[in-house]
Amino acid sequence: xxxxxxxxxxxxxxxxxxxxxxxxxxxxxxxxxxxVLGQRFIADGLKGEVTIRINGVPGGDLGMFMNGPTCIVKxxxxxxPGNTMDNGKIVIHGxxxxxxxxxxxxxxxxVRDDIGYRGGIHMKEYGEExxxxxxxxxxxxxxxxxxxxxxxxxxxxxxxxxxxxxGVGSGIHGGEIILRGKLKERQLGVxxxxxxxxxxxxxxxxxxxxxxxxxxxIDPEKxxxxxxxxxxxxxxxxxxxxxxxx
Amino acid sequence: xxxIIGVIDRQKQKMNGSGIKEALSLMNERGSGEGAGYxxxxxxPDFEDCYALHxxxxxxxxxxxxxDDIIQKWGRVVHQEEIPTKExxxxxxxxxxxxxxxxxxxxxxxxxxxxxxxxVKRLVMEINSSTIEGALVxxxxxxxxxxxxxxxxxxxxxxxxxxxxxxYIWLAHNRYPTNTPGWWGGAHPFNLLDWSVVHNGxxxxxxxxxxxxxxxxxxxxxxxxxxxVAYLFDLLGRHHxxxxxxxxxxxxxxxxxxxxxxxEKERELxxxxxxxxxxxxxxxxxxxxxxxxxxxxxxxxxxKLRPLVVGEHGSRLYISSEExxxxxMDPQVEDIHMPGAGEPVIGRVVT
Lengths: 246, 351
Fold this sequence. Notes:
Helix content of chain A is 13%, strand content 26%. Chain A has 246 residues and is α/β, with parallel strands linked by helices. Chain A starts with a strand and ends in a 13-residue tail after the last strand.
């Protein structure tokens, strides 16, 4: 089927999503949406093998509950792209707002530049299929991986400024936060601890770094070493006894 | 959840209200149709030396004659008229918006360095604190005005014919009331004298902040938390003469463990501000833009629980909840970025 083009200028998100869903149900595998400006909820709950190219600045919750599609954004994103996403990919050629990959439970989100506060909040994993990945090219802000329960967050700090925020992994009880460079103890949130980043860890994140670099045409070589800090939960149950007394 | 946007042209080139109306309407999802409003600076050049008192009257009989009596004791009304409006299908006219252009008799306020402002502040507090039933002053600055009502952004803008006003600073707000009812007086912007405030979020420290401003002669009467921000700015900015950077440091200060890590001089300054202005510290989630005739300042709470995006283009500085709203006003906007938690973003008029 021919690629489908949709002009989103002045269009509310409801008719826009209806057009996207109609195209997908008719078998489209390539959809371009032009002149996007502030429309929320694009591709939410969408299933299928389709690539959606979003040209412009979409509103919040892009790809929420999405299961399968790939969204490629040429522009910045607002809050929470990949919110509770099940499967699929979001590739952002720009920066994104707060709570990127909020509660994400599968699939991958790649952000070329920066993300706002609380990236990967409530990310979780289960079973073999559901292991969400968030890769950030440049920097993230405070409370990264807040209440995180699974998956991997990787921050590459490509401009050379290492993470300067606070509260990394506040309330974390699962998953891994991997930051380029060093992190101070006082930057950790409650329940989080720093652990050594090993060759095995590098092997594990290697494919995600390579995939990230391929999307944004960056040489992966300089990121394939062990100069990272890994943050995990301080124990298997860091908050046992906080709300209940045994 | 609310939507806010502010813009300043630092060379004082004027913009009409059509752009900010479009930008605010783009964020309709952030509101509930129960409150929207606009503030504009530089709109009354013919009366630039007068305080423009914008008042909601329940009717033009008793409340208005009482207001006429009290303000004419304290000064001279140079001109007065009903604020021009156009009926909108989806907007219920709950009040009659009226404006006075007022010159206070400054010799009546003894012992004050800013007698004009103190007379106007006194009148605003007296009229609003229910001594006059059915009248509410919602704007009281010079050469500026607030226009607000309970409705959607475009309906409120069309009601007040906002496109016909030309200002070099604009603020706009789309309300989603959560803790208090939506009503005309509860819509933003909130204003006192030269200060106008738009706010997304809630101020959980409201009780502490309210007691602090009330012990300094202000009265909170609007059933919502935002008005306290306008009074804090008036107290710290006009009375205590603190610059915007320091006011923001008082309201959204760094954490003590961050202060401990600072160089000595900065540490002492930050400690002094926290100790002196403890009751001005605001907790809870918020993103705020404040305007005066010479600039705007935007900032968020210190753990960044509400969004704020900044963009620049030439002499214009934009501060908003969403990048898309800024791009609606100015598709050529450059240098879009998100300021850090508690970090003030300041745009000043270049003179």
